[in-house]
Amino acid sequence: MLAQPAENLERAIGKLKSLHDGDVGVVEVVACGPRAIPALRTLLFEREPSGLFQTRCLAVEALARLRAHEVLTDYLSREQMASDPVERLGDDAVINAAAQALASVREQRVFELLLRLAQRPALTGVIRALGGFQRPEAIPTLINALEDDASRRVAEAALIGLGRRARSALVSSAKMPLPSRERESESSLRRRRSALKVLGEIGISQKLWPALRCLMHDPDARISLLACELCLVSARVGERDSAVLRLMALLPEVDWMLRDEVQNVLRTYVQSAR
Question: What is the pLDDT of residues 203-246, one digit of tens each?
Fold first, then answer.
């Protein structure tokens, strides 16, 4: 006797919940077609105090394959956030999965939703999806994400993808210590270093370089090093000697790891000049 459609769906959902057969469950659930969407929605919206997220991420995958974008959008639009840190960690993993599943949906409402979610830390999938839009309106949010250890690499890649359109904002960010120059926070230092690193990848013009000249003498040695690298690549030839002198002055002041980086920059520049 052939299994009834309801039985097929119930069995497929059971496999999707299994730690061993989850991937097979996704295939079988998708094979059930749109009638599987209500069950997947219920599964996605269920609370999981243990912090486990694998089953709900598989539900996200199945919903994406069924093109149930409305369900994923509804999930990401939820305002409530778990108070328990373990449960919230699991929820963040599901949010990241849902955001990436919507990355190909180039709609204004999705973009605005991702912008709002990106204000929270550690949502790497959200930052990646937001960067995929390649819209200049996202630049301030992507630059703020440079302060977050989890999202920094993804935000850097997105800003590099935006190229020249991100230059002006990156220059401003690199020159902005917060809350003040005298009491700059570690997160602000990380953002400024990262902004200079991205500018090095994008490249700057001789015309833009003077705006960053002051950073060669920044109190932070790494920022000073990054600014000197930009000078050696982008400034007029006659000005590059000042970067060499600054790098030589840094050598006795920095730890051995940064000293190696300074020496490598000097060595590369000398070889290039020859």
Answer: 999 999 999 999 999 999 999 999 999 999 999 988 999 999 99
- Any idea what the Cα angle at residue 123 is, between residues 122 and 127, rounded to 5°? 120
Peptide bond into 34 cis (omega under 30): no
Q: Is 84 left (phi over 0), alpha (psi -120 to 50) or beta?
A: beta
Domain extent listing, the chain: 1-97, 130-177+186-203, 206-274
Closest CA to 157 of 189, 205, 194, 193: 194
Burial of 85: CB neighbours in 10 Å, binned 0-12, 13-18, 19+: exposed
Q: Does the model's pTM come out above 0.85?
A: yes
Token readout for 180 is: 């003040």
- Asked whether 224 and 216 are in contact (CB, 8 A), the reply is yes
- The model's confidence at residue 7, banded by pLDDT at 50, 70 and 90, is confident
9 contacts 32 by C-beta, under 8 angstroms = yes
